[in-house]
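QUALITY CONTROL LOG
STEP: pairwise intake check
CHECKER ROLE: data steward
CRITERIA: each record must contain a sequence immediately followed by its structure tokens, with no blank fields

ENTRY 1 OF 2
RESULT FIELD BELOW
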Amino acid sequence: LWSVVLGLSAVALTKCIRALPPFAGWTLDLKKPWACDICMSFWGVVLLSGAMFWRDPSSLELQPFLGMVGWCVSYFGLQKLSEPQTPFEMPPLADSGEDNAGK
């Protein structure tokens, strides 16, 4: 349960960071690690599990398991949120003028 909470918290942290003005531009420019779901999942889980260890040092033996499962939850959550909501449609082709030349 804690690994799912950790992963979903990393998703929320990533979405909040990507919404901030300097990071939003870097995300649109596809600069790593801000635009990379793998990188942001990793660093979000590392930051949040480090904060959890800071608060409760006795949780050190659970950190590897929590981190691995938390990263998986975070990565798949970011992938799901990064998918386009509507399907891409090609714009209509412009007439080249050859069809209308004889009229």
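ENTRY 2 OF 2
RESULT FIELD BELOW
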Amino acid sequence: MRSTPWTNEHDQLLTEAAPDAAVSDDAELDRVWNCLAAEIATDVPPRRRRRRRVVAAVAVGAVVFGSSSLAVADLYSAHTGKGPADSEDVRLGGPGERLDPAAPE
């Protein structure tokens, strides 16, 4: 296993280059937390917005579920269940099933 190129000298250089962090007193921390608590209390979204989001999520889920159900039910399938109609079809398309090129599959 290859060792990392990081050494104690790197640690020392990083410690020397890092600025000293300012120490906050309790009064300043209380002031900041009080400001944050006031902002959080005023930023509560109205219930109507939540209902709209829920209704939108349910609608999207219904569309996804419905289209998945149709795909599983072979309504989006390119399969036609029809083989070649004549010798020209066999010569041009082979002996297999004719597929619907306009199908979304």
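INTAKE CHECK: passed for both entries
DESCRIPTIVE NOTE, ENTRY 2: The first strand starts at residue 79 and ends at 82.
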